[in-house]
Structure formats: C-alpha cells, structure tokens
Design a protein that fits this description.
Family: Belongs to the aspartate/ornithine carbamoyltransferase superfamily.
Largest sheet: 5 strands, parallel
Function: Reversibly catalyzes the transfer of the carbamoyl group from carbamoyl phosphate (CP) to the N(epsilon) atom of ornithine (ORN) to produce L-citrulline.
Helix content: 25-40%
Structural class: alpha/beta
Order of helices and strands: HHEHEEEHEHEHEHEHEHEHHEHH
Pfam families: OTCace, OTCace_N
Protein name: Ornithine carbamoyltransferase
GO molecular function: ornithine carbamoyltransferase activity
Length: 348
C-alpha cells in the first residue's frame, strides 16, 4: 500500500508522529552536507491551486538540495484542470483518476495545495479532491494544505516548539482566532496544529468567538488523542483566558464554517461572514495581551500575517516572536516528509 502524507494528524499514531518529529529534528542537524543525495534522481510533481511563498520555496529548495527534481504544474492554466467526475468540463478539465495514474507512471510523488475558491469554498471539497488523487496514485501524495488540514505546517510548528521549549508534554499552547480584514483563510492550520500538539502531549487551549468553532470531527479526534497521550484540550470564548499562562500563543485568523456553502454551486454568505469578523476586531495579539502569557512565552503565526490586525508590529518583530524560526522550519519539516515517503532509511 502506498504511504500518503494526506492527513497524518488524524491517521498517524501519536508514538509514530513523535518519532517522526525527533527524526525531523535530527535530519535538520545533518542538512545540507549529510543529506545532499538522499533523494537523488527522485521527481515530485507540484500542483498549486492557491498562492504560495513558503510552501513552494521550501519544498523546491529542499528537494533540489537533496538531489531531487521538482516539476511545477499549473492546475488552472498550464494543464487541463484535474477534476472529479461531477465537475468535468470538456476540453477544460481532465479526470483526477487519469491525471494521477499518468503522473504516477512518470515520477515518485505528487504534492497538491488546494483550498477555498478553487473548491467553491465548500468545506471538505478540496480534501476530497486530494483523497481522489491518493486513491488513484501509485506514488505518495503530499498534502501541501487543503481546506481541512495543513500537515506540513503543523510538523514545522511542533519542531519549533520542541526546539524552543525542550520537552513538550505538559507545556501550554494557546491556539487563538484573530481578527483580519479578510475572511478568506481556511481552518486547516489550527486543525492540524491542534491534532499535532495533543499527539506530543501538550495542554491546548483553543480560544475563539463562538462563530469560529472548528470541525466537530477534528475536535472529537483531538479529545480522543489527548486521552491517550495525557494531553488536554479546553475551549474558551475569551482571548485573555486563552492566553493566560500559555507557553506559546499561536494566533491567526480563520473563516467561520457556519457561513460557507454546503453544496457546490452555492455561495458564501459573505455579509454574515464579514459581520461576524467585524464584531470581533478586538481579538488581536499585542504586547498587553502577551503579558498574560507565561514568562518568556513565544508568539507564533504560520504567515502571511495581517500586521496591525491579527498581531501588532512590536509582537511579531519583537523578542517573543518565533515566527521566522517557524518559517525556516518549513524547509526542514518538509525535507523530513519527503525523505519519510521516498527514502525512509535515511531518517534513521
């Protein structure tokens, strides 16, 4: 059976995930001199339905430095757009089953980023798109962010916390919603981070206004994992209560699932979405809010950050910011993912 990196936050056992985390940290210490040929001759096809700076740059750089080759395909203009059977348009799309089998016969892995508008903002539609690729692909499928999960970001996040805090069990993480002038952000980052954090034994407080609840299936999975690892999950609708005593404050914006369309062809309730955002403009991280966290607490954000909205300049550029160490770890986390999928022996 082909090993995919589709939703490891949900499917990978906590012990295996923690082992991969430690392997990724070790792999980072050996990069690039002692890892320069581990993916020699390997080819990965990258399909970006959405804009990307860190994901595209880090994947291509890491693959190149490890001796592999990246082929970037534009799924919306450069090729016929891969589509599920119910979304096919003659001479404009090509069935996912066909695309996956063709690319599998040429290269060693397929990586896809897709969320939001390319999937009509129907929650879960982009993830189903990736699942179809995984079903028909004979090579590993890497999720570079969909509308449900962002596993590459989550691995980089826990790497950063592990480096900054040492052992993670018992450490307190606040994952908080934050205001933005744009609602166009999926729930993938907080959902993957929540699952990854409880797998490492962290005590997580999820802080958000009531309208910004995460997927109940993800919340249920997080609670079950926490019961196995000794972690904890609690929810608060007050920002100060979320930040209180936290060793890490990870605050970013995400959309309200309640106002997304339920079926293809329906529209986002943008008026309701904007209204619920504007009613919570005070959900912002600044120096005053960070004072409620534990001494030497770190601030994290996956970037791009809406400065002056999600977070103040003095926090994201200040001594408490781990944001750019976190961004740097995207390279190392994804190197470990590619090695894990294509040459697992090199991680030992």
């Amino acid at each position: 059976m082909t090993c995919h990196w589709l939703a490891p936050d949900m499917t990978m056992r906590a012990a295996d995930y923690c082992a991969l985390l430690e392997a990724a940290l070790s792999f980072k210490r050996r990069y690039p001199i002692h890892t320069e040929a581990v993916l020699h001759g390997r080819t990965i096809y990258f399909l970006f339905h959405n804009a990307s700076l860190r994901t595209r740059s880090s994947f291509q750089t890491g693959l190149s430095r490890m001796g592999g080759h990246a082929v970037v395909l534009d799924p919306r203009h450069g090729i016929y757009t891969p589509a599920l059977p119910d979304a096919e348009i003659p001479y404009a799309t090509e069935r996912i089953a066909d695309v996956a089998r063709v690319l599998s016969s040429y290269g060693d892995a397929i990586a896809i980023r897709m969320y939001g508008e390319p999937a009509g903002w129907v929650y879960g539609a982009a993830h189903r798109h990736l699942e179809a690729f995984a079903q028909w692909s004979d090579v590993p499928l890497i999720n570079m962010e969909c509308d449900r999960f962002h596993p590459c970001q989550a691995l980089a996040d826990v790497m950063t916390m592990r480096e900054a805090l040492g052992e993670l069990p018992g450490r307190r993480l606040c994952i908080s919603w934050a205001y933005s002038g744009s609602w166009h952000k999926p729930v993938a980052v907080p959902q993957s981070l929540l699952l990854a954090a409880v797998k490492t034994g962290m005590d997580v407080t999820l802080a958000h206004p009531p309208a910004f609840a995460l997927d109940p299936h993800v919340m249920q999975a997080a609670a079950q994992i926490a019961g196995q690892t000794g972690a904890s999950v609690r929810v608060t609708h007050e920002l100060p209560a979320g930040v209180d005593g936290a060793h890490v404050v990870y605050a970013k914006s995400w959309c309200s699932l309640a106002h997304l369309p339920k079926r293809p062809g329906e529209s986002v309730d943008e008026a309701a979405m904007r209204d619920v955002f504007e009613r919570h403009r005070d959900w912002r991280i600044d120096a005053r809010v960070m004072q409620g966290a534990a001494p030497s607490a770190g601030y994290m954000h996956c970037l791009p950050a809406d400065r002056g909205q999600e977070v103040s300049e003095d926090v994201i550029d200040g001594l408490s910011s781990w944001v750019f160490a976190q961004a740097a770890n995207r390279l190392h986390a994804q190197n470990a993912v590619m090695a894990h999928l294509l040459n697992p022996g090199c991680l030992a």
